[in-house]
């Protein structure tokens, strides 16, 4: 869908820069195993420094001293040198592993053994912390959604049998005990059951389902034993699709992230050539040139310049944002959409199902006094039972049980108008006022003054009256608009419903602009008008019916995406429950993520710039270099992880 419009950020499967993903190495190891090489190296380094500086001896020198520090170097240095070699084989010569390798080998070459070991030791400790942080972020995201049980209990010939969830076929019946998670999507066969849907929607309140309703993988049965008929394959369940979506979210990079990766690819070789320049160029300009001193400065320069603080902390910041969203029932399809939402200026929303419940209720029955209201309602209810329209459901809920003794003949649905039938030889019409006009039945009602949806009724060629039907506003809709205004985001409502209804809802909520009686192409034109002002637009709606508008907007947000496969496919951000208050929450997550990412960029560049100047002037040693590299990286990582603990 993104191809529809050039304004939409495209998917970027970018693997440039430094592939810093060591999380696979972390998953199967304990903390002690991860830090064991560093502990061994640190112990040997401390002993070596003690022999060098605090214990007088005449034997800790020469080849023995070199071998001691080499043994201290190998546990932490060998893995990095191996990474550098593998990167070179793949064509990525100027990786950060290469930088650290030549810096520490250079330190050994000029006899600065303790500093060579220390630089690699601190770098390796930093790498472990980085890998643990990335792995934790990924695990958090996955564990929030990967709620599928591996096994389920199915009924075979009335007998319960435990089988692998992925082997269950469509049509089979799952028996779900109290407290058990459902493994596949299905249809509830039991009369009623309550489910905990928190894993899917972030909503803690139990959701009660009745017979025939859809239940989804990941829901937890809360009370009596229930039976569910499987309707979807394991791999096609909503949960599987959502899980796949979140795991793939990181492939769609934010512009900031892409820039840093490209920057690192250009920046690293420049740093290497500058270091070579620092080593050799002073020979031509300095009278007392000493190769060893200038090589040391170049090595310090290399360590300081290592871009790992940027390369790891920025993706980690976006990981955190995506994780924070999924923990709150908001799925971002890529880190680029976090960036777009952070800067969004307009939220354009549909009405039905977004700001209103999408459940119609009869508000008023206004029939002429000469008609028996109860009798006419029975006839209308019987006729509407032939339709699946939400209006028919509203009338049925209001009128009650259908009187099956009523004989309906010649039932006809007239598209865009309503229903027609013959009862007791008399014609019954139920629909909009266009239907009444079509059959030339006169009435004296001014329909434009009524804000609700009108259902007109005529019987035996006479106008009986009308029912008003309205959709109730969602309980958190007002809070949503208030929060959007607080974020300085402009709001617009676009709907195909009649203008008076749309204006009424907009006035109730304080939405700035509202337009009704719109066809899909009219909605597109309204969004184009906003974009013509060079303003960013987020569209919130169904995501299926409004596909053209979603494609045109900078970011498409789908409400209630849990119930629609197509919505999950087409929208850029999926709100898993129907709460509009998640819209400002998603914007806020975007803003906080962007703020943390830029804090890390500014921190890394500032510290590195200061220490680089000191290093070039000979005022910074390897120890300052270690702080500028590993220290800044760790601070940036801790800052990036912070977003996962924030409350939105």
Protein described:
Residues 148-247 form the P-type ATPase A domain. The chain crosses the membrane at residues 32-51, 63-81, 266-286, 298-319, 601-619, 625-643. Keywords: ATP-binding, Cell membrane, Hydrolase, Membrane, Metal-binding, Nucleotide-binding, Translocase, Transmembrane, Transmembrane helix. The chain is an alpha+beta fold and 648 residues long. Among the domains are: 151-236; 359-472. It has 21 helices and 22 strands. A 7-stranded mixed beta sheet has the order 10-22-21-20-11-18-19, with helices on both faces. The chain has a 6-stranded antiparallel beta sheet with strand order 12-17-16-15-14-13. Strand 16 and strand 17 form a beta hairpin. Helix 3 (62-89) packs across helix 5 (113-145), helix 5 runs parallel beside helix 10 (308-327) and helix 8 (255-280) packs antiparallel against helix 10 (308-327). The radius of gyration is 33 Å and the shape is elongated. The model is unreliable at 1-24 (pLDDT under 50).
